[in-house]
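seq as requested:
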Amino acid sequence: MIRSMTGFGLSQIEITSSTTIICAIKTLNHKYLDIAISLPKELKPYEPEIMKRVKKSFKRGRIEVTFYNELNHPESETFEIDYQKAEKYFNLLQSLKKRLDIRGDIDISLLSNFKDIFVKKDDSNIPGNDTLGFIRKVLDDSICKASAMRIDEGSAIYNDFKKRIEFIKENLSKITEKSKKNIQLWREKIKKRTDSIKKEIKIDENRLEQEILLYALKSDITEECIRLKNHISQLEKFLDSDNGIGKKLNFLLQEMTREITTIFAKTLSSDIKNLGIEIRDEIEHLREQSYNIE
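struct tokens:
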């Protein structure tokens, strides 16, 4: 089953009458598994456990995990004054006033400009014995939601892949049929060129015929068509695999691009070139999609 690398999951749990823990997980495209965890200071000791659970759940992508606490009744939040810091500010202002001989009073309106002397009272204490249980529950729920979104998007990508692969197979079948005339087209082109110089130089007809045939055979695209067909079969097998396949798909699509490029170089048929352009466009689209597959 294909999984996209983009998803989002949000979950929350009320741990006290006044506090709720919220966990948000955002997943993005990335070449490897890259996990970033943001925690409030009281949850920092549990970072290794969170990292361990996230690694088990995702194989590839940028995984951003954010925990934060939220008051259930924000209107009831309280603040405290850091008197020690306020005194330091006051003394510094007094010293500055005296040294520079500045007039004016140092009053409450001036001190209130120093916002860090007003400290928000922490009412979000988490019950110690239950902390890990709360974290696991809210984290697992967020992981489940993010994974479900990745699966849903992966299903849409899968359907798009299948549709485009069928189109590529149809065009490849047409190319295979038309390729039978490619050798003859090359033979006629070379023969026409040599006929134009026969009057000027003496040519061994038997040797010329051998060289024309040899060169024409080099233009045969049968091998490229067979390899491209095999790559398509392998691609379909990967799509139905449960393992992380994003990198495998990307590599296989690169190989398919190489084969269709070789077909372009060898063929003289405008019909084959046009069919090849359509195949190349579909392969490029699939490659773009593969960057978002886990």
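Residues 156-290 form a domain with the Butyryl-CoA Dehydrogenase, subunit A; domain 3 fold (CATH 1.20.140).
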